Structure prediction request, 685 residues.
Amino acid sequence: MSLYTQYRNQGFCVIPLSAAGIPLVQWSQYMTTLPTEKESAAWNADSFGLICGEVSDIVAIDIDTDDAQIIAQIEALAGSSPLKKCGSKGYTAFYKYAGEKSTVWKRNGQVVVELLSDKRITTIPPSPHRVTGKPYTWLMGDLSHELPTLPFSFIAVMNALFPSPARVDMPSYRSEELEEVSFAEAEDMLNYVSPEITYQEWIAIGMALKDEFGDSAFHLWDNWSAKGSGYSAGAMRTHWRSFNGAGYGIGTLVYFAQDGGWIKKYDSIAHVDWEIDLSYLDKKTVKERKQLVAHGLVGDIAQWITETASRPQPQLALGAALTFVGMVKGHKVETITNLRTNLLVMSIAPSGGGKDDPLKAIDILADAVGLSEHLLSEPTAGTSLLKGLKTDAGRVGLWAIDEFGRYLAHVTSKNSGNYQKEIIDYVIKMFGRASGTIRGKKFANEKMNPRINIVNPHLCVIGASVKEHITDNCTSKDAIDGFLNRWILFESLERPRMKLGKKNVEVPQSIIDAIQKIIADDPNGKYPIGEDDKPLVRQVRYTPEAYAMVQQYQEEVENLVDNSPPILQALYTRNYEHTTKIALILSDDEFIRVQDLELAIAIVAESNKLVVDLTGLISDNEQEKMVHKLLAVIKAHAGKGGITHSELIRRSKFLNAKSRKEILSDLVQSGEVIADLVGKSYIYR
Prediction:
């Protein structure tokens, strides 16, 4: 019989801990209920955590000082206990539970003594100490002893001896105004609260989490705090231990989260009679990616790219076709709201998945139709991008970038020069100024370096990357607000088999004719410029049915934005702009038709799903990146019944043993991963 089972049979709630003292089970469920005999029999870790309070009918006085005078005072107030244990300094004495609340007493900012009751854990013998590695020992007795209760006046007298600083008022809610908050909801709420809040507010968030969930919420608070500039890993445990339950409740977290845009439940937007997929609003819903098939010229180009690729990727081919036709139609057409066909597209696929094939096809296609001068080379600075677009490409250009994620790392790192960082800045600025003017940097010596201004710059970009390189080189702030919300994303989860043999990559004449018709139909030239230095564009109007649809869609977008948290509003406000641009690219005549809009809406919806998914994988610090990497390894074995411990070690050599243990403990505690301690395996939940 295991020690866990023996303790359970004695009425004590004891759970397994990691070597770092972190619970290896989601222990909030055991705050009020003992584990079953089957559960405790399956636990076989070497460290033991006793959950204090009502569930074990026990409280502990944890003396965290070697000051003999203070120890004598506490012993005189608490009375003698027949059960004591020791880890490093001081000792812990146990008493019978009588409804006491967990409390911390400090002197000169340092924790002196703690009363461990409900929602608190204490490590018990023979567990090894998480710092010294030496086992905890019983100084007196064991858990079979009959325990006394603490004197009724103990807490009041301790409060007088160790007074707490005055509490600063903080906005909160009364408990009767709140619905129950789950652990997962609290984790979600923290996404809407900036860790850069004031010190007192930061402390209040920690107190609120501990008050509601006990020590199980420490890693929620720690992971959230780690995103802030003032984070100090060494001080986190000390602060946490000082939260004595007399501070702020969970309503404080609710207040800050709602102030940041958190909404408890999102109502789905009613659909019109034509289908728009808005299921990505439910971030917990996991669906297969839709296979989007285009019509007309875009569809023909996408099909040709797919058929000639060494590793066919239809979705990535569609992204390339849209980008190329968007460039072809530059300075040719616009919508009734003056939107042009300049598009930023990102193609995401596994390494070796053929994501570069569509980029190679663009080169072949541009040569075949006489537009190769409009393909931009990789710029070395922001100024060279502007010069290449204006001088070499005549204001209409397409920039295709392989390994886009690596390129981002190169031009946005802290070691990059300002001239490199300007490249992405200009890309973002030109996205919204296709019918306006982009103004370059003004240099001190204008004769040597004249300022470059471009009227109606038309830049299309397509970048190909593996997902990890994008998430590694974006911050959570960039992800939706400012960067990714301007891009249309296409993703393939597959790595198709390579097609062997020589392929015929010749561009079909029908595609060449269709592209040259767009260019050559204009008697004023390929990309004509008027007397006011602006291109001579024509408006493409909607059919009556399409116009009614786009009005309905615009209203839906407004409702969607109004009912979304701020971080998603920045994404959804681009829906109408993206949709009408793509519909204009898909149009093959003088009108935007219903089928153009339907496909454009579907493409934008799928792209939004991807942006939201990517944002969830973006890490703002190295610790988060390692967590996501390890979780990805476990997820990859989700359909195989989990991954064994030995296999996990083999596939996660990017972590040292200590870090791996700590991250696994966090994942198990959060409920994302189930630890099968008997089979020594891990399963993604």
